[in-house]
Design a protein that fits this description.
Strand content: 15-25%
Distance between the termini: 31 Å
Helix content: 25-40%
Shape: globular
CATH superfamily: Aldolase class I
Strand order of the largest sheet: 7-6-5-4-3-2-1-8
Number of helices: 10
Number of domains: 1
Radius of gyration: 17 Å
Number of strands: 8
């Protein structure tokens, strides 16, 4: 398994891409899986009867990838029913009792009341916790971002993520400031969604973040870029001095 130094490219695991990746060694989905440093298992996309075995299946395809488990609620961009949020600690317990399980789990900020219970489950196993927040209408203000950071530091989580809808070419600057302030977390993701947020998915890695998300197959979020292009852009980032230069590179594709 890869260590948690950055930058890290995250790809989402869903039923269609997993079945495709398992079908043949040279399938594009399998190549994409192996191009990712982290694979996010979106449990909410799978039938619950399959949950315990998912980590083992993915480990066979991409043994070196860090696994991040997510049961995303509907209000946060997933399909797990909001009313069932109370059930998630018990479901995580079942997932973590399997012979193979994720290395990290994702918990939304608005469910921080579950953090202590989850930490009791994860700590003996060495599993780490990423706190995430999603805003599908706007980039939060500096004060809102500061309060979010305070909340996550208070519980001593291992990682932090903010993904928010960008509405102008300049509003992602607040996310970059947030990423710099979040120094000290093992995983830091801070990027904009939507068309004007696209570039921030890569440029944020220059601004203090070390985690970003790409799509395998169909995009799972507004403005998401496919893993293959993200891989090229992250490599290009090493020799890129400005956001405009990086944007010009992306426009080639």
């Amino acid at each position: 398994m890869k260590n948690s130094q950055g930058p890290h490219l995250v790809g989402l695991v869903d039923p269609d891409t997993l079945t495709a990746a398992e079908s043949e060694e040279l399938h594009p989905a399998r190549i994409d899986y192996n191009n990712c440093d982290v694979l996010e298992i979106r449990y909410d996309f799978f039938d619950e009867s399959l949950w315990q075995g998912l980590s083992e299946r993915i480990r066979k395809i991409a043994p070196d990838a860090i696994q991040l488990g997510t049961i995303r609620l509907d209000r946060d961009g997933g399909i797990f029913e909001n009313a069932r949020a109370i059930e998630r600690p018990a479901l995580w317990k079942s997932i973590l009792e399997a012979s193979d399980h994720p290395d990290w789990i994702d918990l939304e900020r608005d469910c921080l009341h579950d953090y202590d219970e989850l930490r009791k489950l994860t700590k003996p196993l060495g599993v780490k916790i990423l706190i995430s927040e999603h805003n599908f209408s706007r980039i939060p203000s500096d004060l809102e971002l500061k309060n979010y950071l305070t909340d996550v530091k208070k519980v001593k989580a291992d990682g932090i993520k903010i993904a928010a809808m960008s509405n102008s070419k300049d509003d992602c600057a607040r996310l970059y400031k947030f990423a710099k302030r979040a120094k000290g977390f093992e995983f830091i993701a801070a990027f904009g969604m939507g068309e004007t947020g696209k570039i921030s998915r890569i440029w944020s890695l220059k601004e203090g973040a070390n985690l970003t998300y790409g799509s395998i197959g169909k995009a799972a979020a507004p403005g998401q870029i496919d893993v293959g292009l993200m891989k090229k852009a992250i490599e290009k980032l090493k020799t890129t001095e400005t956001e405009l230069e990086l944007s010009s590179f992306l426009n080639i594709f």
